Amino acid sequence: METRKVQITGGTTLIVSLPKSWATKVNLKGGDEVSLIPQTDGSLAIRTKNAPEVHQTKMIFIEGKDGDNLIREIIGAYIAGYNSIELRSNKILSKQRDTVRKTVNMLIGPEIIEETSDKIVLQDILNPAELSVKKSIKRMYMIVSSMQENAITALKDKDFDLAQDVSDRDSEVDKLFLLVSKQFRMVMRDISIADKFDMPMEEHLDMRLCATPLERIGDHSTKICSMVQQIGYKTVPDDILAAIEEVNRQSMKIVENAIDAMFKRNISQANSTFIMRQEATEKLRKLDEAVLKLSSDISVPLGIILDSIDRVCDYGCNISEIAINSAVSSTSK
Known about the structure:
two-stranded antiparallel sheet, 11% strand, 10 helices, four-stranded mixed β-sheet
């Protein structure tokens, strides 16, 4: 780290010299313009006008790669913030092309713009900086809230089509989760992008942390629906179903309360979530005892459903903890 003394010229203008090694590295000459970008922590970022955009194109050689390995590498390049992903091989196989198309459908933005025998080019047609991170989080919450409610409705009504629909909706949650992850990495890599999102770095971190429990709730909604399929047309006592519906509604109220506290930065509201959690824990304990008295072909899948609801309560509390940390951080400035 180099230090410089601030000097005064013209009586009021403050000036400071730039490190010569840095100026040489970025090819900065006398007369060139630079951008001065104030940061939320009080520091000042200096960016040259001709600074190249980072991570424009990523080339991936996919010879011998397929299935989950190929999917993970493409998603990794997407989250890293590359606008263009070029996949190359001596000859791209049909099953590799199917995997690439499957992966594109898992993401928001990328499209296949070129395809030859040895190359596939994916181009991100959306500018992630133009998409609101907060809206993505709110959208994730709305989807998982609906999924969780519909999953229990499917259990009550033995509606297996609805159960399948809930499972299908999980892909939308995953897409938003990957998008938020990409946006966070973009800001981490180039702090000047934070201004384009109109959010400070700390808030980007909070939103990214909130995205994980919401994505997990979507997974548990899908898990509940798989148990609904397993129970099938077996009879579940009405009082058990009513109690499950009630505690599930309470679990999502915990999540709703936590999300609201997160956006309002309301510590009292976030703390109230933990009281709600204690009440839900007692109801779940009693339900567990009642379910254990049923036959194993019903009690086992119902026990898994109750465990998923319990985990949803935990995820709501996780979000409340993030909300408290965020609120304390903002009030300490």
